[in-house]
Amino acid sequence: MRRSLFLIAMLLAVPAVAEDVAFQRHVLDVDTSLEHRPIRGISGTQYAFPGTSGRIMDKAQACMQGVEGLVVASSDTEKGRLEVGVRIGYRKRWADRGVASKMTVEAGDGVFRITHSDLRYMQEDSGGYVPLAHRQGDWDGALEELIAREQRVIDCMFR
What is the pLDDT of residue 77? Predict the structure, then answer.
């Protein structure tokens, strides 16, 4: 009993290092151990889709072809993983901006999910990409751009 109380006290004393934040039917994995709160990843909805993981991978790859800013980096049909480089330029509040990520399509028989990692953001005169941080700069606009491209792929999958 005494040991259990000690373990509980230790767990309560350790600050949380991550927080899940809801954003447009997605979950953001935010690193709260750092002051600038970088977004470590985004997870979307798991979709039911008829067919094998191979069929889902083929369809997803075909749907990527027409979406600006998406470049297929690797495909592993055995593991059901499609990795895609994302680099999107957009204009908001009178400034040119950019957002980049590694998008992953994870497929199993009858299901798939799209996630993002390595999220980076660039503002017009910043000189390069920096980690995308929760509630800093145009973080929500950058995420909206990523999710809009993802949605185009999902819409294509279900046509």
Answer: 87
CATH label of the domain that carries residue 41: 3.30.530.50
For residue 23, give every residue at least 6 positions away whose Cβ sits within 8 Å of its Cβ, in sequence order, or none.
Answer: 42, 140, 143
**b/e code 96-125 from CB counts within 10 Å (16+ = b):** ebbbbbbbbbbbeeeebebbbeebbbbbee
Are 41 and 115 in contact by the 8 Å Cβ rule? The answer is yes
95-148 confidence digits (pLDDT tens): 788 999 999 999 999 999 999 999 999 877 667 888 999 988 789 999 999 999
Report the pLDDT value the prediction gives residue 35, as an integer from 0 to 100.
84
**Per-residue pLDDT, 58:** 94
Strands 70-76 and 81-92: antiparallel
Q: Is the pLDDT of residue 14 over 90?
A: no
Domain that holds residue 132: 2-157
Best CA proximity match to 105, nearest among 74, 122, 83: 83
Question: Which residues are within 8 A (CB) of 24 and not within 5 positions of it... i.e. 6 or more apart?
Answer: 143, 144, 147
Q: How many domains does the chain have?
A: 1
Whether the Cβ atoms of residue 76 and residue 93 lie closer than 8 Å to each other: no
